[in-house]
Specification:
CATH superfamily: Isochorismatase-like
CATH architecture: 3-Layer(aba) Sandwich
Shape: globular
Order of helices and strands: HEHEHHEHEHEEHH
Distance between the termini: 29 Å
Structural class: alpha/beta
Strand content: 5-15%
CATH topology: Rossmann fold
Length: 201
Amino acid sequence: MGEDDDAATIKAKALGGVGLLIVDMINDLAFPGAETLRPKAERIADVILGLRDQADRLKVPVIYVNDNYGQWHSEKSKIVEACAAPDAPGRGIVEKLAPRDDDYFVIKPQFSGFYATNLPVLLPTLGVSQIVITGVAADICVLFTAADAHMRAYDLWVPPDCVASEDDGRADLALDTMHIAMDAVITPTTELALKDWLKPG
């Protein structure tokens, strides 16, 4: 893809001012507590996939925001490969939601997708002013990413059927916090379509 083609792609994807963030779903789920999280992550994976399909139809950029799992020399293909290894408990989710060539992939070293990443530069480049945040865990990385987005004046939608945590109570508390303290829209995808959340104009 040449520079002109890339610029045209970015311009097209900026329509609507919305970006879809998929947080830490490229995940081997091989950590203490993951056995509790895994079935919940599997359920939301299908819903996120449907939301990603909506984003594709609307030319909304899809941005994976993913932990580096302590692999400081790693990059997208190595992270995806490691999380889709035959013995990785999260392999099925990774195969279902693997990023495509036109998707963006931001590697984060800490909880927030904004901390020490290029996300603060990428989003304005794409013309994004509204963010849909999906993924895991609702009470950790999703919450921290939402807080940083709110401090940067982004409008937020966090569909509760697109996030999960090991503990459902903590997930509910995080969603309440995002709604009350960050003005996030907390509405499931069954009640709000992506096209209806786009700003007019």
